[in-house]
Structure formats: C-alpha cells, structure tokens
Amino acid sequence: MATTSGAKELAAEAASELRFRTGADGYDAAVVLGSGWTEAADSLGIPNIDIDMSDLPGFAPPSAAGHSSKVRSLWVGAKRVVVFLGRTHLYETHDPMRVAHAVRTAVSAGASTVVLTGAAGSLRADFAVGQPILVRDHINLTARSPLAGPDFVDLSGAYSRRLRGITRDIDGSLAEGVYASLLGPQLQTPAELAMLRSAGADLVGRSIALETIAAVEMGAEVLGMAMVSNDAMGAVFEPFDSAKALAVVQQRALRLGDLLHAILVRT
Question: Whole-model pTM above 0.90?
C-alpha cells in the first residue's frame, strides 16, 4: 500500500470480500466507530451479519481500548450500511494507508456517505464532557497523509455542509468545532494545548483526519462527530484518567446510535 493507487487496489479486494461474506450487492453508507462508541452499533440499525476485520484483505485488528475488530453489515431503513466497530491508529505502528483502509474499502463497496466518530478532549469551556460535537473542519498535525504522489485533493469542503445541516435539523442543540488530529499516543503538554487553542482548534484527538482525506479523495461525503470524553485544558489541574474518559462515551453509546440512525435515514 505504498501508493494511493496500490491502497485503492487493496481496498477493492477487501470490498469484494466484504460483499461476498455479507451477501450484499453494495453499500449506501459506512460508519466508523471510535473509542467507546462500539455499543452504538446495537441501536444504529437492524443487524444482518458480523464478520471479523481479519477476514478481509489488508486489515489489522485494533489494539486500543474501546475498539472492536468486528465489521457489521446492517440495515438503516432501506439503506445498507457497513459499520466498523473500531479503528486502527498511527500510534499503533500502522502507516497512514492502513489507517484509511476501512474507509477506502467501504467507498469501494459503494458507500457514498461516510460517518466518522471518535472521542476527543475539549479545548473550550463551553464544550462539556459528554457532549457530542459535529466536526466542521480539522487540523491535521500528524505530519502524515493517506495519499502518496500527485494527489492534490481539495479539502475546503471536507466535512459535508449538507450532512451537517441534516444533523442539526434532527438535533438543533449540536455545536460544531474544529478537530485537531495528533499522532499520539501521549497527550499534550500545557504549552501544546495553548498552541492548539490559539490556532483555532476546539477538540483534540488522534483519528478522523486521515480517514476524511481518503474518503474525500474517493468522492464520498463525510460527516464527523466527536464525543467530548474529557476536558483537555482541565488536565493541567487534574491528571487524565483514560478509563474515566472511555466510560463517558460508553455510557452514551446507545443514544449516539439512535442519533446516527436518524441521520442515515435522512441522507
């Protein structure tokens, strides 16, 4: 997967195997569930079949807490949706092509809508822990890209205005923010957090951005949503508790699945 074309070829193989193993002719949409979001799949739609990522070419199972290696084929109304119940990250020693492989596979299988979810630290006083935030834009600070070669992709509208509008029509209380994607796995120093805030970031995490780039390059519409799992700025005064942050998302996962269901029905 050293080149974009090579990554797409492997994704096409994985898409063919996905369709074969799930009995689907194709997919209308894809959902990638981030840290703690796994149980959202149970309220997202009517399940058809679960398979393991390792059954598909090019996939490696996630190793991070709060992620599953399962891939679920399900129905959301009349739409066929593939759901990845976990993801891999750069900090798990994976390269950018591997990180974006699930999204490329889904789009190769026909998905024209990609919903990316995750957990994130808040850099704003008015973003409360336990609050879902729509991603309006991102700042990719991983110094990595899922593209290789002269692939000049316009990211000025990376996060679909149409999909965000649909989501706000469903839940008008949802706020929007800019997501800063960092390499990790370490968290940020106080100086780094201050820099991110001054640069315009509202949320900080370790995913979403590379997958968005790959999805946009392949022509899919992207909706990003991050659950605030912790007060990133507050970590200056209180040490970060990873188990507590994960539990914040897990406790809200089923309700988040209901929200994603409503969104996908209207896309």
Answer: yes
